[in-house]
Amino acid sequence: MPGIESVSAGLTTSEAHFIEEARGHGELYIHQPYDLYSEANHEAWRNLYGRMVPRWERYANPQFLRGIGSLCLDPYRVPRLDDVNRFLNALTGFRAKPVSGYVPAFLFFDCLRNREFPTTITIRRADRLDYLPEPDIFHDIAGHVPMHTDRNFAETLVRFGESAHTAADLVAGIRDHDTKIHTLTSIIRAMARFFWFTVEFGLMRSGDELKVYGSGLLSSYGEIAHAIDAPEVQRYPIRLEWAINQAFEIDHFQPLLFIVDSFDHLFDLVGEMERWMKAGKLSNVAPGEPAVNEHDLESFLAKTG
Fold it and tell me: How far is Cα 218 from Cα 59, in angstroms, rounded to an integer?
């Protein structure tokens, strides 16, 4: 019986009947059926959170640590998004918005523009804590959302979201279909790379030290330490032309990371990226990962009309 399956599987990544049903009905934006979380789901959250605390204290930037405190996250139970949003919205106007899975590029950036962060509600299995190729609620809520409590960082996300509208308006004026698709593919790839090397895997100067602010690092027990301590990691002050032309792969520790000076610096970089977009400098970035799929293209094309 589907009802029994959904309860027994809980809301485990790739095993949640609730998510399968939502996708089957074409529902992207959903609610969080909190009662479906199993004890194994809560155990996974408890283990993930507990082992990250010492690493956050050692490697995370001060704004993240303040954000963790401001959100009052329960170390032992998967958080209720309504509770998270009550604290978060009062600080920066942001809120976590539950989704059933992958959010096409334009819709994702548009959510940021509207101070909404698409949030996965499933959680990885308790016996597979170290690596997950797709986001889960621990990555999104414990990795991303504490950063959204910082006003400067929140404004950077909003500006990033606004740049997606700039891209849509830009390609709307291109008549030739092949040129439009080529230009749009390049711009989406450039934006994805910039987001990856900053919001997901960014480092920041903090006095004489380097600290982590990228959420992919903040939610990874192994990679947060590797990013700072491993001698083989290449760490460079960020340059926009490097970030938008640098391919990346998601299935291993990152060998190359970029450093920003502050969140004001990051905000200015997003503005610079948008100016480069208008000047055509994002229209022919280097090929390679990440791939731009049909859903990403369609999400922008739907906006262009």
Answer: 9
